[in-house]
């Protein structure tokens, strides 16, 4: 899966201010799946989401899709440590990520919906409501499966 130079430029122009933020850089300190950091995971989900949207001509909003994909796991803790009061991570982290993204970046409602619904169907009541949300939900499942199976 390769992005064309113009797509790469568009993706980078949307993400540059967020990607370089010191709070976001903290995601490099946490493991997501196998040996993959949360930062690398969200990079992969973002790139796959962007690629799916462009190659399948789905027409989701580039900005909503890209920022939602990149911040979908912006929870900033080690989910493997179960005694830190994070509850059932699979059910709670999408809300934590959404709240962090609102507080740190002032994201809009459509981007909030992308983040909040990325764990569907585990969070059965958080059904994706937009093209961007569906793409990120699916891309996250694909990337997570690959990371879990191949990065042990």
Short description:
With 152 residues, the chain is mainly alpha-helical.
Describe the model.
This is HD family phosphohydrolase. The protein has helices at about 5-20, 20-25, 40-55, 60-70, 90-105, 110-115, 130-150; strands spanning about 30-35, 35. It has one domain: Hypothetical protein af1432, CATH 1.10.3210. It is built from 7 helices and 2 strands. Helix 3 (about 40-55) crosses helix 7, helix 5 (about 90-105) packs antiparallel against helix 6 and helix 6 packs parallel to helix 7 (about 130-150). With about 150 residues, the chain is mostly helical. Strand 1 (about 30-35) and strand 2 form a beta hairpin. The model has no long low-confidence stretch (mean pLDDT about 90). About 60% of the residues lie in helices and about 5% in strands. The radius of gyration is 14 Å and the shape is globular. A two-stranded antiparallel ribbon has the order 1-2.
